[in-house]
Amino acid sequence: LDGYHARLAIDGNTDSTGDGVRTASWASDNWEVTHSLTVILPAEGDLESVRIHWAGSLAPSRVVVSALIGGQWRELGTHAPAGNEAVSDAWTGQAGDVAAIRVSQLPDAANPGADRRMWVAELEVFGQVSEPRVPVDVKAIRERIESELLAQRRAEDEARKAPVIARAMDPLEIRGFQGIIDRDDVARGRKNV
Predict the structure, then answer these.
(1) pTM, whole model, 2 decimals?
(2) Are 66 and 145 in contact (CB under 8 A)?
(3) Got the DSSP string for 116-171?
(4) What does the alpha-carbon distance between residue 97 and residue 92 come to, in Å, rounded to a whole number?
(5) What distance in Å separates the CA atoms of residue 13 and residue 146, rounded to the nearest whole number?
(6) Which bin fits 162, alpha (ψ -120 to 50), beta or left (φ > 0)?
(7) Which terminus of the chain has a smaller tally of CB atoms within 10 A, N or C?
């Protein structure tokens, strides 16, 4: 739903310098909306940290890190990278039974050099598989995430368009002279010239 070549964000290649910005990293689409990169784990895990390697050091002004725990999204934290840092330790803590991890860039947080995209060279998630091992239904979670992102995108689009539509639908406020000019008015005007 959002972005191009998601596999490049988890391929182990953290170098996105030079041409790597476009060939070795994930990029969201270029719209002024919330962009999210979500990684679904094959089994529930106990997370300890999330590190983001930014493509071309194009870190946004802030990102939100969330985890899918027990079927509910839980915000783990917000991280504000310092300038154009190449690597961000976006979250450190303890979160158990995590099925998926999501990093989101809000619409107003894009790096000016990245247009409105979020560029990620590599997303690293540290922790271990929960005991006992609980497999994750990747297909079901993927469908759910796609549905949630689509609903979020539609809601953000409606919110962005609403003020423009409201302004266009406002009745015109006519200023100055109002009247209908008929044939007699035109004839009088010609006589006065």
Answers:
(1) 0.79
(2) no
(3) T--EEEEEEEEEEE-SS--B--HHHHHHHHHHHHHHHHHHHHHHHHHHHHHHHHSP
(4) 16
(5) 26
(6) alpha
(7) C
